[in-house]
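Human: I hope this is not a bother. Would you mind checking the protein record under this note? Thank you for your patience.
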Amino acid sequence: MKPVNMKPLKRNLDLTALRSFVAVADSGGVTRAAGCLELTQSAVSMQIRRLEQALGIRLLERRGRGVVPSAAGEQLLGYARRMLALNDEALGRLTDRAFEGEITLGVPHDIVYPAIPPVLRRFNAAFPRVKVQLLSTYTTVLKEQFARGGCDMILTTEEGCAPGGEALVSLPLVWVGAKDGTAWQRRPLRLAFEYRCLFRKRVLEALERASISWEISVESEQSRPIEASVSADLAVHAMLAGTEAPHCEVIAHEGALPELPEFSINLYCAGHGKGQMSEALAGLIRQAFSGGALRVVA
């Protein structure tokens, strides 16, 4: 029989012993460390001995009237500080009742993807006790909700930025159609739009200036019917660059369709705020829309 390769068992360092070791190294003695940790001197000494026995090395050396880390102890000290910091951060985030509550975030449905899901994932990892209520609707509705206090924070798509808002990025509207579709070549040009879409007026104005005949072939209150119609090559649509659905594509019309204007993606945060939680969410949103384009925050 071939010998079985047994992987060595992984051992765990005792965080309590590491905390005592760091306290002794920082204070220069067991007595002072015991006072800082609210333990007896014998308890601290025992934890240090247990740690040395587990590692098989001497961690402290006596120097004068105090003790200092040995060469090996100096090496362990850096690891110990990082391990304890991570431990304390995790406990603080998961048990601190200060980071509890709910934030209502409003986002127009056409810019939810691709940026918002990674933002929410990262925020949830940092603040697992905070519930984010996502409201997705039209910019006009979101601004009404925000004015009434129904949202803590909203993103909008607007021409320019209203007072109190923060312009994150300006993106051009692009023509979107089915992959390898031909609907954009037909005349009259068939369009698919939501009833209250802010882009609709500017698209129709651009077509009129270019003397291109058009018709609204698909209208809906929801974005899903619009996406389905476009992906089926029944009509074309206009979206902010970078927000098109994966089953659609930007139309390479080579000038056959008019150029469209830019719109600004703006961030509005309520004055009452929610402290660190609100600022952390706003920071992740800013990062997702930084650099002049949409970014997926890993």
Q: What stands out?
A: The chain is about 40% helix and 25% strand. The domain at 15-95 is CATH 1.10.10.10 (Arc Repressor Mutant, subunit A). The chain has a mean pLDDT of 89.
